[in-house]
Specification:
Length: about 280
């Protein structure tokens, strides 16, 4: 058995007294298997069992073990293993002669860390309760001002946008197939927009129609090229010459349809679309 040493009480031991008075105890601890195996590889299974029970007793009481071999033997079931008990205490623990108790450095560290977390959580809970109490007594104007101040502070601190603060996207509404667009092309274009997670709205359709007019293309042909490209958007400036000349018939038909709409072309059965 190693020589007895005298140590000063650690900060963890000082905090034990207040915790014991409050009736708050530690219910678990981190068992570092690798360190434990390395430190106890030379012990027998029986000695490992006694050592584990000493550690469990330490954590359960959250204080150093008493310097009383009879008491420790009773609590660890090692009444008939006095020599092993004394050896384990001398090898893994340090005796505080003044307070007549055995310290374990790893146990003290873990318990102190646990107490610090408990204190931090307690302070945070008290601060939250105080804030709720203050907000309860505020007038409507003061409470609104505080909420706005908080929002401004978060923006200035460059806090990341949470799911609750994501910008609202334009909600897609049901848009009918335009009369000058082939139904199959329209369905294909809507599927492309869906795959790109882009909405189909009147605004989008009107914008696309303007680009088609800039390119001097039928709207249906413009959407057909769009589908062939598989892009999320399409502008007239992006079109290649062969794409602009996709369908001369389609361009002529667009002119005829436009004339019919304005009443510039005589109707009746004599009016026919080219290519039909």
């Amino acid at each position: 058995m190693s020589a007895l040493k005298r140590v000063n009480p650690s900060p963890a031991e000082v905090s034990f007294k207040g915790c014991l008075k409050s009736g708050i105890y530690m219910h678990y601890y981190q068992h570092h298997i690798g360190d434990f195996i390395k430190d106890t590889s030379f012990l027998t299974n029986e000695e490992i069992g006694i050592y584990l029970k000493l550690i469990w007793l330490y954590y359960d009481s959250e204080k150093p073990l008493p310097n009383n071999l009879f008491e420790l033997g009773m609590k660890t079931g090692a009444r008939d293993n006095r020599i092993e008990l004394e050896g384990l205490l001398g090898m893994f623990f340090v005796l505080d002669i003044e307070n007549q108790c055995w310290h374990h450095s790893r146990c003290d560290k873990e318990i102190e860390h646990y107490r610090q977390q408990l204190t931090t959580a307690s302070k945070a809970g008290k601060a939250s309760a105080l804030k709720r109490a203050l907000n309860k007594n505020l007038t409507g104007v003061e409470q609104t001002f505080n909420e706005r101040s908080t929002e401004v502070q978060l923006t200035n601190n460059q806090e990341p946008i949470t799911n609750n603060h994501k910008p609202k996207r334009e909600i897609a509404t049901v848009v009918a197939c335009p009369p000058d667009v082939d139904q199959q092309i329209w369905d294909d274009w809507k599927q492309l927009r869906k795959a790109k997670k882009a909405p189909v709205t009147e605004t989008v359709v009107n914008s696309a129609r303007k680009e088609a007019a800039k390119a001097n293309m039928a709207f249906s042909d413009f959407l057909s090229v769009w589908c062939a490209r598989g892009s999320q958007g399409l502008q007239a400036d992006w079109l290649k010459p062969d794409e602009r000349n996709l369908s001369k018939t389609g361009q002529t038909n667009q002119t005829v349809m436009s004339g019919l709409t304005r009443g510039l072309v005589g109707g009746g059965s004599n009016v026919k679309l080219l290519g039909r």
